[in-house]
Design a protein that fits this description.
The complex is a heterotrimer. By secondary structure, chain B is an alpha+beta fold. Chain B is about 20% helix and about 15% strand. Chain C has a domain of about 80 residues: NADH-ubiquinone/plastoquinone oxidoreductase chain 6, subunit NuoJ (Four Helix Bundle (Hemerythrin (Met), subunit A)). Helices cover about 75% and strands about 0% of the residues of chain C.
Chain lengths: ~350, ~160, ~160
Amino acid sequence: MGLADILIKFGLILIIFVISLVMAMYSTYAERKIAAFFQDRIGPNRAGPWGILQPLADGGKMFLKEEIIPTNATPFLFIVGPSLAILTACIGSAVIPWGQKMTIGGHIVDLQVTDINVGVLYIFGVVSLGVYGVMIGGWASNNKYSLLGAIRAASQNISYEISMGLSIIALLMLTGTLSLREIAEQQHSWHWNVLRQPLGFILFIVCAFAETNRTPFDLPECETELVGGYHTEYSSMKLGFYLFAEYINMFISSAVMATLYWGGYNYPGMDWMNGLLGTTWGPLFGVAIFFIKICLFIFFFMWVRWTIPRFRYDQLMDLGWKILIPLAIANIVLTGIGSTLLTHFGF
Amino acid sequence: MESLSNKKKVLEVKPLNFMERAYLPAIIGGLATTMKHFFRKPVTISYPEEKREFSENFRGMHSLKRDEDGKERCTACGLCALSCPAEAITMTAAERQPGEENLYREEKYAAVYEINMLRCIFCGLCEEACPKEAIYLDGDIVPADYLRKDFIYGKDKLVEAPLNQ
Amino acid sequence: MSTFYFIAFLSIFFSILVISAKNPVHSILYLILTFFTFTVHYILMNAQFLAIVNFIVYMGAILVLFLYTLMLINLNKESEPVKPFMVKFAGVFGGGILIIALVASLKSIGISDPVVLKNPDLGLVKNLGKVLFNEFLLPFEVSSILLLSAMVGAVLLATKDPKAA
């Protein structure tokens, strides 16, 4: 590994980091704008043309607000909470393959920070770690609403992680690898996994909603019952980090869904396109396709948020344990039977 | 208990059928509804730039009127202040000096005329009480401001612009 | 090698903090850090799968449940029972004997040959799966039955007794 490679890697990490932050920033803007459109309104339109500077204004506001640490809070953990939330949100992007290998000036650049052979599990681990930010923050606030929000977050995340894992297992039975790069390569052109795992995809997307605490599963921050949930006591940029982490999580989970089920950077006719554009611009076009997919998923997240009311807590648990988990297990069994039949009789 | 009006209707809570219990069809229906709204024209009126049309009997900011020769109609009789339920109006009367005949219609006029817009409830009673048809609530919405003292409107803001200009 | 010593030092340091922390929630948080250092150990040994599973199962699930329970039952200094002197003494005595036994046994074994991994990829998913489902199939299945029985037991404990209810 030469110096150039290391520099390229650092550049890639920096770019991905910046992109995920910018995506998260503009997701907040998109969220407000899309919510407005769904409700026949206009949305933020004062900061800059069409309000596109709104995220900057919001960020500036967050930084300049008064920082409050409640007297009875545990100060260190109170700060650790949001830091952990944003940290776990940011490190998830390390294993996502953003595009095919491309060549720039003789160097082969791998558009993935690291291709560990347990990539799917890594994502899974990072997601499961994400709940600590919420739990620690909620507990350290020393407020009953925050604590209730934290406890809800913990039980919700654990419940939905199970069915998420089970729906991934069915997918892994077909791919035979845990590396996200290989999974993406297997879906070359139009062989997207969603065609082979439609039920698994539906289970996964429902669980992704629950893991990112988005409506209809946003019970940890349910305003009507819990004031602000786990971030009731937070102000200033620490609150901003919590909100930001949610949007980064949304971005990452959209990227994961696009990679696992919707072909990642693959699109029909990509070989022809690659031949046309060459080894630099071809993969970049794939990256663009990937980002379009991600944006569609983010839009879907928002679309659902502004359509469906939130679940009641017992309904949430019923859905997780009594519906999703049996369905996921059934999906595994069906996948097993299907793939065995396929290999034995060779349809 | 016997129903008096016989209009009572007992609702039966039916158990959900499979399609309803499956959530997804209902969710897709809801998504379709919101998508319809996505492409609908927004109903918002961006206020300072565009304004909704006022109705004919809208009561906005007061204006002190002039007569056809451009003289101030108000004679500082104080009936408006008396009729005001919110006690928002105060005034100081003064005598017209020789040479000011083109400014004030009567011999007496209001040297100071103040309306506290924070107190005013825009009921229009001053308008009704005025014997000289000197005050009308025919203006715009009173604009927002930062300080309480800036809401006490004097003659500079209330009197109509002179006619000949 | 120095990385190993550093991480090993951290594991021991955090595990001491686990038992010395006054606040139970803090000690759980230290336990999380301890498990994180274990994950790093696994990565140092090139056992990626084990590392990530340790990460998911222990840090991501079991300790979340620990933390969850502790938050619910709200242990603090006031509710902690005061232990009589004899119990404390017995604890110290027992611990001391354990240390002596450990030190003595460590002295007697001498330094063994360092274990050299014949196949550095042993810890990867594919190899681990092959080993688990060929050589160690029986223990693997037996442990799954163990887990199943534990699960059945938990369900039985949690269900209401029809007579008592």
